[in-house]
Amino acid sequence: MPLPVSPRFHVWLLAIIVSLGGFLFGFDASVISGAVPFVTAEWGLTDWQIGLLVSSPTMGAIVASLLVGPASDAIGRRRVLHVIAALYTLSAAGSALAPTYLALVLARVLGGLAFGSLIVSSLYIAEVSPARRRGQFVSINQLNIVIGFSASYFANYLLLQISQGGAPWASSLGIADQPWRWMLGLELIPALLFVFALKWVPESPRWLLLQNRVEEARQILRRIASPAEADELEREATETQRANPLGWRERLGRLLSPALRLPLIVGLIAAIAQQITGVNAVYFYAPTIFTQSGVGTDAAFAQSVWVGITNVVFTIMAIRLIDRVGRKLLLLIGLAGVAVSMSISGWGFSQATYRLEESHLSTLEQAGSADDFAPLLGITYHSDVEFKRALEKQLGEETARTHHAALLAAGTQINATLILVGILGFVASFAISLGPVMWVLLSEIFPTSIRGLAISVVGLINSGVSFLVQLVFPWELNQWGAATTFLIYGGFALLGFGLIAWLLPETKGRTLEQLERHFQATAKP
């Protein structure tokens, strides 16, 4: 169903609708940050079970990375988007109603299959956007991702306050006893909106040309571009398709050929750097990280809201800058910022001390009696790991885990403001660079004929690294401590900075076909 609007506004509307998949990704991925403390207490989860629960959607995303690109090449971008919308809907309902830990993990894996929206949405938007503003349009998907993050943090904080408010209606609806089910179930609202809005989205004209459906492509091009732009896009895209009539095996062979070695290496570096610097540890464990600084549960949830706000503000800045400043400079600025911010956080945690006094016991009555705490009083611990081990030994692992927020709030002496500045600095640095720029790059650097396959391969690596970061983070935090964990992330950012500075060419302002010819030329001896 076509939209009766001007070409430029039409592209804006298409980008906004398609990037609802990004909003759902952000909401689905980060809403678990608020649910984790409640699910952990209800089902007595271990570090590895928490890691698996948080990272389980990424397992689905790994499968989606293998399938979504070839599927979008085979049946079209639009049909794959419809499947993704249905998966998000089923996952939200299944997560809210999950009767067991295993059922919840499986429901979240199902939602992870929908994370292919990151690939298909960026791919679709790039294929309908004019070259001079493609970076802005593709970045709308990243903006919707971070708005989804922010919406989940706000929703989690609101539901936490409602669950503690004692209102009879909250008890009757189950919010007071199991707020996590409402946190996860709210995703149904945007998921159903996505299902409905996709009826206004046409197929990608470039994909239609690949299928020799020229007249359909021509009609869509004339709705999304001026006559001159439509004719030029049709001519360039048609020439590219005719020059590259490749089957699946041929596309894979071409992706691995020397001619595409540089684009593939650049794509992999960007994909790995985006995840290995710790972004999903910060986004998906935000309340847990702030709890480590001893601020307590309510303040930890409130500070997570600032993560969402910072994310949105700096992503908007990235959208305004990406086609002016360029992809490479933004990446370098962001990676430098990530390295500095993670170093600040790591140093802040390294300077913390932990000490329980008799005056703290009145706030820790649920964790144990005065006699239980007596051997711990007056002893100063110089790392969070050392403090946690002492608590577990004295109180028991289950008790220490259940009341860890209150215990840390009582015993931690740390510059919590410095930690907050470091984490928000990281979020700002990521949001203005690695977040939006990576997906813009992936939609630009590969030829049209193999773009779906190439983005799937790179997306697979991106998802694999993301899964490992999320899975290992709770164990890292308890075994190595927050200081070491964040310093490791900062080190990876420095490595990424060096590789990007060395290998990445600038891609702004060029058509997809011009970029293809550029990379072919650089591969020649």
CATH-derived architecture of the largest domain: Up-down Bundle
Radius of gyration: 24 Å
Spans where pLDDT lies below 50 across 5 or more residues: none
Question: How many strands?
Answer: 3
Mean pLDDT: 83
CATH topology of the largest domain: Growth Hormone, Chain: A
SSE class: mainly alpha
Strands of the widest sheet, in order across it, are 2-1-3
| Intertermini distance | 49 Å
CATH class of the largest domain: Mainly Alpha
- Number of DSSP helical runs: 29
| CATH homologous superfamily assignment of the largest domain | MFS general substrate transporter like domains
If you had to describe this structure to a student in words, what would you say it looks like?
The longest helix is centred in the first third of the chain and has 31 residues, at 134-164. By secondary structure, this protein is mainly α. The mean pLDDT is 83. It is built from 29 helices and 3 strands.
